[in-house]
Amino acid sequence: MKHSVVVSSSILTIGTIIFCFSFIHPAEATYSIAAADLTNGLIGAAATTCLKVQDLSIYDALYHSIPGNQSKTNKGSLLLTQGLLSDENDPHLNLALELMKNGTDPDSILKNITDPTVDNGQDYREPDYSLRQYGLVNMNGEAASYTGNKLDSLYDFYGYDSSEQKDVQGTKTSAGGTSYVFSAQGNIVSETLVDTVVNAFDGCDLAESLYLALISPSTKNLGDVRCAEDEIVGSIAFLHVESADEGVTSLHIDVEYEVNSSGKVIDPLVSLRSQYVEWRKQQPYNSKCSVDIDTPSSGVEEKIAYHFLLFVPFLLTVIFL
């Protein structure tokens, strides 16, 4: 979008996006983290969003894994999709799952599914990849993230110009020698939230690390800007851990949207915390993992490789006019 002559097409683009939003629900104000425990062969993720829709599972909407036993070229991989919710007709998601099964590296997968030609000839309503956010990890110790370059401008248009659209990926090694690779991402969230999530990924095992990362924004009054009026970080949430080779679930918590008798949104992290504590109590005794989950059980030596994607505002002319 360049100058006054192009303003009309900019407005047309915005109108098209808004029109399409009436058909495709965005996972509004979402933050998530996907991680692989390379030492113990586990993979998992945690996320919350401010999407106020009944009977919607954020786990089903965001979480897509391919266990290692499904392909000789794939040791186990996990993709989180957010921004716009995917469905079974989504060409981006279907291509991603195929490439994951073939053992394609995360950078190449994201490059392929964010190619504009993926949508050509598809019976699928726009907008597409430019309003998506992805996080991908695998058991080869690789991670990649993507943040669509129109998310910033779209949320600015809706009045959320102070929100952050950001992704971070890297590795961490626990004091006990457990190696992790992770990808964290957030859109329409408070500034510094994604960094807070990454810094809190610091527990005795994968489950606790994901849990601590998920709840960390709530301890610093950060979160989904759209849920700020309800004084909660999100309206639905999930926490999931499975074996990377067989896909066998060891922990699964999926909290759906709920309101109390006064019509106020119930904080999903309250239920998630309670379920996590009960799950932890039922696990075999591990001196490294405490049931007291307010603080990390063990220290972590960070080796984080930050990857901040540049945001290209497509309403530049409108801003200057």
From TrEMBL:
This is Uncharacterized protein. SUPFAM superfamilies: N-terminal nucleophile aminohydrolases (Ntn hydrolases) (SSF56235). InterPro entries: DUF1028 (IPR010430), Ntn_hydrolases_N (IPR029055). It comes from the Eukaryota.
